Structure formats: C-alpha cells, structure tokens
Amino acid sequence: MKVVHRKETSQMTLELLVSDDRLKLFARVVPQADCNAAREDEFLKEVSSIAPDDLIDRMVVWDIVSELRQGKGCDARRVARGVSPVPGRDGKLVWLVRRFSPGKTDDAEREFVDFFTLGLFENVAKGREIARVYKPTGGLAGKDVLGKPLSTKAGRAISPRFEKTIEARADDAQEAYTTLVAAVDGYVHDEGGKFSIREVLHISGNLDYSMGHIDFIGSVRIGGDVQKGFNIKARGKIEVLGAVLGDNVITSDSSVTIKGFHYGGEGSFLSAKGDYTVDACEKVTTEVGGNIFIAREARECALCSSSAVISPRAAFIGGSVWCVKGFEGRVVGNPAGVRTVIEIRNELEVTKEYRKLSDNIRKHAAAAAALELHIGPYLKNRNRVPLLRNQFKEKMVALLDKHDQVTKSLEHLKGLEKKMREGKPLESNARVNVREMANAGTVLTSGETILELKDSVAGPVCYKPSDDRSEWRQEAFMDLTVE
Hints:
- By secondary structure, the protein is of the alpha/beta class.
- It has 5 helices and 34 strands.
- 17% of the residues lie in helices and 38% in strands.
- Strand 12 and strand 13 form a beta hairpin.
- The termini are far apart.
C-alpha cells in the first residue's frame, strides 16, 4: 500500500493509504494528547480531500472517531472503496436442439434411456430455430478510490462455422443475439466445431446399440448391417449396404434398398411408399407402394406391392405375392412342390383396409367352423333341440344363436369384400411371367379364381386373369414393364 496523505494534529496522527489495486483507501490513526476532543467532521474532511464523498464509508469513519475519543487508534481501517470495472461478456452460441457428433455419445444421456432408444440426435424441420449467437457486451468502466476512471475490456465476439444449410437471421426486436435457422429438413451435425444440417443420416458401420432405433425426418444410409431388433423410420430413402438380420420394423415414406440379405422373422415388417429393392430375402412381410425388385431369391415371404414385382432373375419359393400391375420372376416354387401363391389384385385389395377385412373374414369363418363341430347334427335338425334335457337344451340353443350371429356377420363381411373387388377393375396388362420354371405347387389367384399347377411348367410362360376374373389364360410371353 502507498501513503497518499498525512495529517498531524493535537488529536491524532492520520495517514491515508491506497491499496495496490487502487480500489481501497485505508486509514492509519495514532491517538495524541487531545484525542478525546476528536471530531467526525474534521476527520471526514481529511478523507474527503483524497476520496470522492460517494465512495467514503461514513459508518467506518464514525467508528474510527468514536474509538479515537477513547484513546484507541487503528493500523489499517478501510474508509473508502472504489468501483471495480465489469468486463464485457464474451459472445456465446446457445443450442436449442440436440446435435449429433459422430463417434461421441453422452454417457449422462445413456444413463436414463434403454440402449434401443438413445436419442443421439433431434429431428429438425426446415425453418426451425436451432440456435442463438449472443453478441458480446462492452462491459462497465470502474472508478478507483481516488475517483479516477478504471478501464474495462469488451467481450470477445464468436464466429461459429456453419454451412449453407443453416441460415443466420437478425431480428430487429432482439439486439442481444442472432438466430440460426434450419434451411432444410434434417439433423444438426457437429464435426469438429463446424455445423450443418444433414439431410441424410449416414451410419458408417452397423446399426446396433451404439446408435439405437432411428426415427429420422430425412434419408438414412447404413454402411454395415442392421442388427436384430433395431428399427428404422425415415421420411426419405432408406439404404442398407449390408444385411438386415431380423425382427426389424423398417418404414420409409420413400424407397428402401437393401444391398445384402434381408431376414424378417415374426416381429418384422417393411413399409415403403416407394420401391423395395433387395438382393435376397426370407420371411419378410412388406407393404410397398412402388415396385418390388429382388435380385436372387425370396423365400417364405409375404410380399405386397401396389404396383408390380419385377424380379426376372429371382426365385420365389414359398410364401405369397400380392401385386396390382403384375409379376415377373425366374422360378416360382421348387421341385419339392412347396406351395407358392402369386395373386393379382386391384388397387383396393392391397390396402390395409382390405387386409383387415380379409383377416376378419378368416376369423369369422374359423369361428363358424368350430361352432359347427360343437353343434353337430343339431345344426341341420334343429327340431330335435326341444327334445334335449334342460341343461343340454340351453347350451345347444346358445350355440345355435352364436352360430347364426357369426354366420350373419360373415355374410356381411363377404358382401363388403365383393364390393371392394368390384369397385376397381384389374390392371389391363397385369399378368404373371415366369421365365424358367413354374413348379408344381405354384398357385395363381385373382379374387376367387384359382389356378394351381399340378405339374411343373417350363418357361418362359405367361398367365393372365380374364377381365371378369372368371379364369386364368396362358398367353404369349412378353416382358413385364411398368411405367
């Protein structure tokens, strides 16, 4: 500390000292002979000659003078305090959405979720506010204890790096920050501090516990395999460069392409509004709005397409195919005669509503058959029911009533099914093309018309349902093409 003022009187010896940071003024007081006559205003006058009045602590001054009157001095009492400068706040980037950084997983987030639903990124729609870039502030100047100004430092600005997929927007009503807005649909991608909105979610390896289920607003590309039990949902395309290993639900508002083998299983389902393309598949159930393209083989699948199945090099063994615009394959069935069904349907018959209706008809038919077994001969000879003993008569009456209700509902459902079949005609060029072999056990259906091959037929062969679905006709082979 430095002595900046000294005063000697008959009451005291006073020294005023300034701290090294110039923010504090201390008093050193030694009592003299007339100390009991010390006055506060005289002491305050000495301090005021050094420090501005608004910085002086009058309560401390009063206490020092009170002690002095009792013959007590002090070594260093703070009698004034300056105003510290306030440095400016640095600019900062505040995120309003969760961003994804490849290879980095927040363990704190993992602690509260299961490994299938990690939620490592957040879907961002075009136009959504994703972050705010706060501007630096200039800070506030200070004042030392002698009243001289103390300079301050302004905050440092930041310049986050982002691509054209992120748009910076200034808001006249908000001077404190600039808003960052998504220019496209996707997720916020953080790659070493450079930010962008990615429209394609690219997983370089397998889809497994390191990523969890995917529900993405854009397209998804998997560089490896989709492990068992992991689901993918995307508004855009889904592309898997490896295999899909079972019990997966895959849903796309566009197309699905699987370069490797696609195994389904009981818990699996594939839905695509566009095309479904795969190398080979087994036990896969699909609902496809576009075409189905299979390179090598489909085994025990339930393939449903609102367009066509065009796979001239593939073998279809077991399972079923529903299509609207036609089917073309290399081989149908196998030499062992496994039942393989190819069905040409109209546009309504491949919808969810028709599928649900068909399931209800099947359940009602099974229930009616089970009731007929329980009722036995009394179904056709109801006049014998009154001759039964009371408890058996009541039971039989209840079974007959139930049978009549189920039969009535079944007829109603079949009427609805007939309306849906008649509501839309078949595609005029819809047909079944088999290039090499249609094996025995191949079943062609359209409505209630069924053609089951008892013997194998060598290809190329073409079968076409009549317009009224009353029969299947064999016609000259012509490649299936769909616009």
